[in-house]
Amino acid sequence: MSSPRPSPGPDADPQTPVPFSERLVVPWWWWPPALLMAGLLAAELHMGYPGVRSWLPYVLLLPLAVVLLVWLGRVRVAVDGGVLRAGDARLPLDRIGQVDVVRGEAKREALGPQLDPEAHVLHRPWIGPAVRVEVLDPDDPVPYWVVSTRRPEQLIATLE
Q1: Are 129 and 150 in contact (CB under 8 A)?
Q2: What confidence tens digit (pLDDT) does each residue in 61-76 have?
């Protein structure tokens, strides 16, 4: 769920961009099936073993499922301090060219046949839209970035 955008105060500079931050977490409906599968696997391992071996699979596999889901959603996309951050990659805002939203079939094309092998891609399949950001730095071999985001219009507004 997205947090509301903070409104600038009366003394705020109109040229200062509103910071953007989003964590690319997995959908909430992934949690019940993941925990159910971990529980079923633990029950399979538990069958027929007395003592410690009966509860040990539950103690290990259920937290492992939680850690896996949290790890999958650890990546953050943010704009602050004049830099676009997508995961561990950084791109100064003054080196950004054209920014486009890619959705549906256009996203499939952008990540498939049209994808430049040198492009920086931060894709999460559980997030529908993505943003394609052109890189204007002549010294950077990366021609553009493709970054998944749930709020592409807000990200583009922040970048502009």
Answers
A1: yes
A2: 999 999 999 999 999 9
